[in-house]
């Protein structure tokens, strides 16, 4: 990212302070809903919700299937905040704006980030409707310098050169595998590698073949920048992709993907994704049960 844009620590703090003064909740878990997965917020009890347009400093959602609302609430005794709608680079947001909420969450006292997305599968073993636990990612925009951490480093958030080798928490990944077994849905769930591409167009066949050869299991247009920023500031991360379509890899194949189809699979699998995320939040250990951030 070669833009001169910077967001000061104060700006993140102002948004965090505004939110903390408008809700009684003190979230320790943040959830980002992928395309068509906005219903993840429905399970939160005692909700306080805010349209992004009312939150100082927040960008706006422009994509169908991303409502643009921040919902606070309780889930299984844990205080959570849920983004019903994320920001994508292809919408024209800078990567700093795309990832703005993550640092706000950190300042609010969040410890764990759960990212979800809709993705196309490259792996033959992943069918539409399957759930892929993200074990690692390839951040294609990041590899060529489109990285939200480019620019001056704010040491208050994290180091100049953060490690990314363990960015998807191993303990949470095994916990969700175990939960999937207990829920009787383990045939739908497997681990894999997610790749972020810039979008907004879906892949050409040559691009799909390339991604497949590189070992990518599922591809989408989000998530990696959020995870990079979350890892930089010390959040624990769990990620899952709902496989909404197969990426066409053959010139003989006449199928093609569209966003409505992506949203439809989200609706069909919403309950299973919701149950897995609810159980994960219920069962995950947390470091600091007492989020004592003061209301300012
Ligand atoms: O990654 P999420 O936001 O779930 O959305 C995915 O679905 C959209 C394409 O249908 C793209 O935005 C892609 O990234
Ligand atoms: N790039 C990309 N993003 C997606 N999001 C949902 N499906 C897809 C896909 O096939 N490709």
From TrEMBL:
The keyword Transferase applies. GO terms for biological process: purine ribonucleoside salvage. GO terms for molecular function: purine-nucleoside phosphorylase activity. Its EC number is 2.4.2.1. Coiled coil: none annotated. The keyword Metal-binding does not apply. Keywords: Glycosyltransferase, Purine salvage, Transferase. InterPro entries: Nucleoside_phosphorylase_d, Nucleoside_phosphorylase_sf, Pur_Nuc_Pase_Ino/Guo-sp, Purine_phosphorylase, Purine_phosphorylase-2_CS. One of its GO terms (cellular component) is cytoplasm. Pathway: Purine metabolism; purine nucleoside salvage. It catalyses: 2'-deoxyguanosine + phosphate = 2-deoxy-alpha-D-ribose 1-phosphate + guanine; guanosine + phosphate = alpha-D-ribose 1-phosphate + guanine; 2'-deoxyinosine + phosphate = 2-deoxy-alpha-D-ribose 1-phosphate + hypoxanthine; inosine + phosphate = alpha-D-ribose 1-phosphate + hypoxanthine. Belongs to the PNP/MTAP phosphorylase family. Homotrimer. The purine nucleoside phosphorylases catalyze the phosphorolytic breakdown of the N-glycosidic bond in the beta-(deoxy)ribonucleoside molecules, with the formation of the corresponding free purine bases and pentose-1-phosphate. Catalyzes the phosphorolytic breakdown of the N-glycosidic bond in the beta-(deoxy)ribonucleoside molecules, with the formation of the corresponding free purine bases and pentose-1-phosphate. Preferentially acts on 6-oxopurine nucleosides including inosine and guanosine. This is Purine nucleoside phosphorylase. It comes from Xiphophorus maculatus.
């Amino acid at each position: 990212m070669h833009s001169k844009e910077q967001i000061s620590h104060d700006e993140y703090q102002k948004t965090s302070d505004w939110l903390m003064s408008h809700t009684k909740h003190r979230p320790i878990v943040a959830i980002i809903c992928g395309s068509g997965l906005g219903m993840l917020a429905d399970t939160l009890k005692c909700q306080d919700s805010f349209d992004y347009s009312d939150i100082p400093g927040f960008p706006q959602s422009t994509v169908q299937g991303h409502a643009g609302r921040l919902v606070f609430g309780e889930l299984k005794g844990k205080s959570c905040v849920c983004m019903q709608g994320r920001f994508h680079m292809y919408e024209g947001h800078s990567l700093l704006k795309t990832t703005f909420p993550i640092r706000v969450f950190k300042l609010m006292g969040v410890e764990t980030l759960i990212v979800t997305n809709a993705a196309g599968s490259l792996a033959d073993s992943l069918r539409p409707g399957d759930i892929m636990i993200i074990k690692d990612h390839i951040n294609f925009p990041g590899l060529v310098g489109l990285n939200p951490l480019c620019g001056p480093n704010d040491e208050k958030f994290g180091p100049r050169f953060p490690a990314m080798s363990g960015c998807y928490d191993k303990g949470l990944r095994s916990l969700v595998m175990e939960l999937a077994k207990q829920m009787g849905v383990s045939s739908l769930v497997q681990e894999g590698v997610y790749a972020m591409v810039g979008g907004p167009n879906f892949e050409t066949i040559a691009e799909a073949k390339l991604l497949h050869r590189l070992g990518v299991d599922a591809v989408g247009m989000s998530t990696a920048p959020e995870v990079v920023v979350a890892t930089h500031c010390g959040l624990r991360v769990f990620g899952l992709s709902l496989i909404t379509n197969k990426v066409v890899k053959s010139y003989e194949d006449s199928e093609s993907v569209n966003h409505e189809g992506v949203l439809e699979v989200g609706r069909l699998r919403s309950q299973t994704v919701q149950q897995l995320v609810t159980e994960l939040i219920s069962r995950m250990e947390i470091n600091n049960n007492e989020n004592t951030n003061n209301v300012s």
